[in-house]
Specification:
Keywords: DNA-binding, Repressor, Transcription, Transcription regulation
Strand order of the largest sheet: 1-2
CATH topology of the largest domain: Multidrug-efflux Transporter Regulator, Chain: A, Domain 2
Pfam families: MerR_1 (PF13411)
Structural class: mainly alpha
Largest sheet: 2 strands, antiparallel
Distance between the termini: 64 Å
Strand content: under 5%
Organism: Kitasatospora cineracea
Protein name: DNA-binding transcriptional MerR regulator
Order of helices and strands: HHEEHHH
InterPro entries: DNA-bd_dom_put_sf, MerR-type_HTH_dom, MerR_fam
Number of strands: 2
Mean pLDDT: 85
Helix content: 55-70%
Radius of gyration: 21 Å
CATH architecture of the largest domain: Orthogonal Bundle
Length: 131
């Protein structure tokens, strides 16, 4: 598929896809006319990359762990250093904190929507007293 189709199917800009390719996260074949041609498997790969970026992982870490994520539940990481494992643990813990924050925010929005849908206005929290 060409870059436009990959862009549409993943809701990712062409510019961003070229960046992923520049960073060696995805690869394309070149057609005789110079157009990029992507394999079908890159639809899932791009979605996976976007999810990892949205979770806050930097490209340098994604590049290292992406080969491990090719098959569900198959992890093969022969060159993992203690430093890399520590980095991944820190990133995992940071993602957990973000998830917890998102859950709290989602629950607050749900409570607000519940109150509004009952026809009641939510009671605003009092402003802190000035000292």
């Amino acid at each position: 598929m060409r870059i436009g189709e990959l862009s549409e199917r993943t809701n990712t800009s062409r510019r961003l896809l070229r960046y992923y390719e520049e960073q060696l996260l995805i690869v394309s074949a070149r057609m005789p006319n110079g157009y990029r041609e992507y394999d079908e498997r890159f639809v899932d790969r791009v979605l996976q990359i976007r999810g990892l970026l949205d979770a806050g992982l930097p490209v340098r870490i994604i590049k290292q762990i992406l080969p491990c994520l090719d098959k569900p539940r198959t992890i093969h990481f022969p060159d993992a250093t203690p430093e890399m494992l520590d980095t991944l643990r820190r990133e995992r813990d940071r993602m957990t904190e973000r998830i917890d924050c998102l859950i709290r925010n989602r629950d607050s929005v749900s409570e607000y929507l519940d109150e509004v849908s009952k026809g009641r206005r939510p009671t605003p929290e009092p402003a802190p007293a000035e000292t």
